[in-house]
Amino acid sequence: MGRHALPAAADDRQPSRATPRTAVEPASPSPEPQQLRPRGRRSALGPAAARATFVEHPKPTRTVRMQSRPAPVAAAPVASVAGAAVLSRTAVLRAERAVDPRHIRRAANAKRAAILLAPAIAVTSSLTLAVPANAATPAETQQGTTTAQAAQTFTVAHDVKVPVVTTDGMTTTTTVVSYPTLDLRFGVTTAQAQSALSAALSAGGDRATIVETALQYMGDPYVEGGASHEGIDCSGLTMVAYAAVGIPLVHYVPTQDAAATTIPESEALPGDLVVYDDEDHVGLYLGQGLVLQAPHPGEVVDIVPMYSAAHHFARLLPAGS
């Protein structure tokens, strides 16, 4: 029976259980016999009043809707806007890249490339720029003069007149030799060059020939392994100068130094060799503290002061020359 159904009325057709049955009286005949309700359980329909009776709830029905919460993004900065958590654009892009297969592959490739290039970068960073072989190091450079300052001391003297004094025992002759250009560096003046060249050429003999031959290459560019006016290096200059007096030399500084005899500076004469102790450079001694040389790439054959780097003098000419 429903919760709000009305109780059914008492059945007056059923005799009371408390009244004992003693005898059955015969029913009086009636024109129309009445149909009795079945004994036992009441009808499921019940009275009409019970079927139409209900109670309305005073409050409306409340509907609850369940929503799934999104999974939080790890290590993503959030900004509070009006009480709600909002992911920044950078965090969203970072989260998308973290799950993007292409980004993962690119990151892996970049990591592998960094691992492979690291040794090469380390080796390259440890390399130093060395001066080429057979290159000169002037005195001022060894004392701390920079390349820019050295370039400012480079001068070219034009039409230099060099007096050459010769004597045959009876008469003395002075001849003026004109040089179109003389390349002077590191403070060498035109007067110093004139004096040294005049003394070297006036001595005559093989020494004068060696110096005069080397002066023909004045102003020619330095070329590694060269021995001509198109380009010449330091050992090439000494080789062609000594070839003029019939002394062949190998185009290599250590071999030229090995073929010569080391002499003290006090005995050095014009035409002798001035060799670095490490045998990396060689020049021709002009006397009076000047050297004729082919320096290094980018420069030309010039006249410089005596080297401040460790050096020694070597002689190739026979004794008495």
From TrEMBL:
<dbReference type="InterPro" id="IPR000064">
    <property type="entry name" value="NLP_P60_dom"/>
</dbReference>
<dbReference type="Pfam" id="PF00877">
    <property type="entry name" value="NLPC_P60"/>
</dbReference>
<dbReference type="InterPro" id="IPR038765">
    <property type="entry name" value="Papain-like_cys_pep_sf"/>
</dbReference>
<keyword id="KW-0645">Protease</keyword>
<dbReference type="InterPro" id="IPR051794">
    <property type="entry name" value="PG_Endopeptidase_C40"/>
</dbReference>
<protein>
    <submittedName>
        <fullName>C40 family peptidase</fullName>
    </submittedName>
</protein>
<keyword id="KW-0378">Hydrolase</keyword>
<feature type="domain" description="NlpC/P60">
    <location>
        <begin position="204"/>
        <end position="321"/>
    </location>
</feature>
<feature type="region of interest" description="Disordered">
    <location>
        <begin position="1"/>
        <end position="51"/>
    </location>
</feature>
<keyword id="KW-0788">Thiol protease</keyword>
<comment type="similarity">
    <text>Belongs to the peptidase C40 family.</text>
</comment>
